[in-house]
Amino acid sequence: MTPASDAGPARYPDQDGLDVPVVWSTPMRTRFRGLDVRDGLLVRGPAGWGEFSPFWDYGDAESHAWWRAAREAAVEGWPEPVRTSVPVNVTVPAVGPERAAEIVRASGGCRTAKVKVAERPLRPDGTRGDPEPVGAEIERIAAVADALGPGGRVRIDANGGWDVDDALRRLPLLDRAAGGLEYVEQPCATVDGLAAVRRGGHVPVAADESIRRAEDPLAVVRAEAADIVVLKVQPLGGVRACLRLAEEVGLPVVVSSALESSVGLAAGVALAAALPDLPHACGLATAQLLVRDVAPSLLPVDGAIPVPTGPGHHVTPDPALLDAARASSEVQDAWVRRLARVRSLA
């Protein structure tokens, strides 16, 4: 399977034994992380299929870790799993309470929900406005907790959208609405902010961006700024790199996706399945956020995603689904040229 021929001039040498890349694109079911469309690039190598899909706000140097993860999947493969399924959370975007409850009920039996908060509306000039009113967050979280029922767990993700004062003011209210939050993910953008929220409140703190976009991921540990770390395979350079980092950090790990197709999600499942301990549900049930997928989607069954049983525990694209999700020639060319630039940095 190859992309359209008009992308030909942008093709690169297959020095790793990789096929010509295939570029996919799909609308999002609900606007998420400021995205209405998600796209990426797939490569096939001797070990199976890998995905390269850094967000467009990542520069070429920062995107190189994403390429290392794709190459690992396609050329080297992954460690053997120590479990046959991975418990997952349902992800609830910044939507109204009725829609939030619907998402939970349609989640495939998930008993944990991650709810997006600190949503900042996009202004006409491209800048972000103030975080949404706390009342809207309370209503969304309460609806999610009610839909989960007794024994359900609610975690929230602010994506660094609060300052310390705002986080400490809102968290007790949101904790009450949830009937007790499991944790708050990245309440503030900086490590110092995370540490201040952790010291000043009682809700456990998870670090995401302060790990995956940091020059020194261990700064979070030295500052005692987090109780939990969130690891994402592509931004951190692959499954093996994440396993090494998890050992260095020494804190409980939650594996989350970077909004990949199911080919890319398989790498997250591989990491979660290889970790010695997995005390929390993982954020890997995000194929539900895409209108289309390139393979039969990795979806939860009774709240867990089964580890793929195909060769190397990879997911192989379905030709018909891949064809339906194939990007336009313009998008294909942009991705292939981007990959060529990123690979040249090695």
Could you give a quick summary of the protein structure above?
The protein has helices at residues 60-76, 97-105, 134-148, 164-178, 191-200, 209-212, 219-222, 239-249, 262-274, 319-324, 329-343, and strands spanning 22-32, 35-45, 48-52, 85-87, 90-92, 112-116, 153-157, 181-185, 205-207, 228-231, 253-255, 304-306. It is α/β, with parallel strands linked by helices and 346 residues long.
Features:
single chain; 346 residues; alpha/beta; TIM Barrel; 11 helices; 34% helix; disordered N terminus
Q: How many beta-strand segments?
A: 12
Roughly how much helix do the residues carry, as a percent range?
25-40%
How many domains? The number is 2
Query: Regarding CATH, which class of the largest domain?
Result: Alpha Beta
Listing every helix as H and every strand as E from the N terminus to the C terminus, the arrangement reads: EEEHEEHEHEHEHEHHEHEHEHH
Cross-sheet strand order for the largest sheet: 5-6-7-8-9-10-11
* Number of separate helices: 11
The name of the CATH topology of the largest domain is TIM Barrel
Low-confidence stretches: 1-13
β-strand percent reads: 15-25%
Radius of gyration: 19 Å
Would you identify the CATH H-level superfamily of the largest domain? Enolase-like C-terminal domain
Question: How would you characterize this protein structure?
Answer:
With 346 residues, this protein is α/β, with parallel strands linked by helices. The chain has two domains: 19-77 and 318-344, 2-Layer Sandwich (Enolase-like, domain 1); 85-313, Enolase-like C-terminal domain (TIM Barrel, Alpha-Beta Barrel). The chain has eleven helices and twelve strands. The chain has helices at 60-76, 97-105, 134-148, 164-178, 191-200, 209-212, 219-222, 239-249, 262-274, 319-324, 329-343; strands at 22-32, 35-45, 48-52, 85-87, 90-92, 112-116, 153-157, 181-185, 205-207, 228-231, 253-255, 304-306. Strands 5-6-7-8-9-10-11 form a seven-stranded parallel β-sheet. Strands 1-2-3 form a three-stranded antiparallel β-sheet, sandwiched between helices. Strands 4-12 form a two-stranded antiparallel sheet. Strand 7 (153-157), helix 4 (164-178) and strand 8 form a beta-alpha-beta unit. Helix 2 packs parallel to helix 3, helix 3 packs parallel to helix 4 and helix 4 (164-178) packs across helix 5 (191-200). The longest helix has 17 residues, at 60-76. The protein is globular, with a radius of gyration of 19 Å. The two termini are 26 Å apart. The relative contact order is 0.19. Mean pLDDT is 93; it is low at 1-13. It is an enzyme of class 4 (lyase). Belongs to the mandelate racemase/muconate lactonizing enzyme family. MenC type 1 subfamily. One of its GO terms (biological process) is menaquinone biosynthetic process. Its EC number is 4.2.1.113.
